[in-house]
Amino acid sequence: MRKAVLLTGLLTMGLLAVDFSQMTTEELIALKGSVSVQDRDAFRTELRSRLSQMTPNEHAALRTNRQTNAQLQRSRQTQINRRLTVHRQNRGTGAGRSHR
Q: Is-contact 58 30, C-beta < 8 A?
């Protein structure tokens, strides 16, 4: 029974894999930074295979996308750091704790 469930899970995972070769270069560029962990290797391989064939406009779009993703990551990290600082301050003062 366990083997059947495991086999079904593995087959399903294979069916859910994304075929990046069927996408346009513009679609790939738009996905950059939002690809799931299990699909990253296939995504990178496909994007790298197209780099030499990209037009100057596509290269510019890719650079812009990279910069935007880097800015988003910095923004997210700043938000996380702020939350951690507030959490640490509240923990030190006892704020937010319920007293019974």
A: no
Does residue 26 lie in a domain region? Answer: yes
Give the model confidence (pLDDT) of 39-97 as tens digits: 999 999 998 898 888 888 888 888 887 777 767 777 777 878 788 888 888 877 665 55
Buried b (16+ CB within 10 A) or exposed e, 64-80: ebeeeeeeeeeeeeeee
Domains contained in the chain, number = 1
Q: What is the DSSP string of 8-58?
A: HHHHHHHHT---GGGS-HHHHHHHTT---GGGHHHHHHHHHHHHTT--HHH
Segments forming the whole domain that contains residue 75: 21-91
In a domain, 6, yes or no: no
- The pTM of this model reads 0.50
In a domain, 73, yes or no: yes
Amino acid letter at 88?
R
Decide if 63 is inside a domain: yes
Side-chain half-sphere exposure of 43, counting CA atoms within 13 A: 16
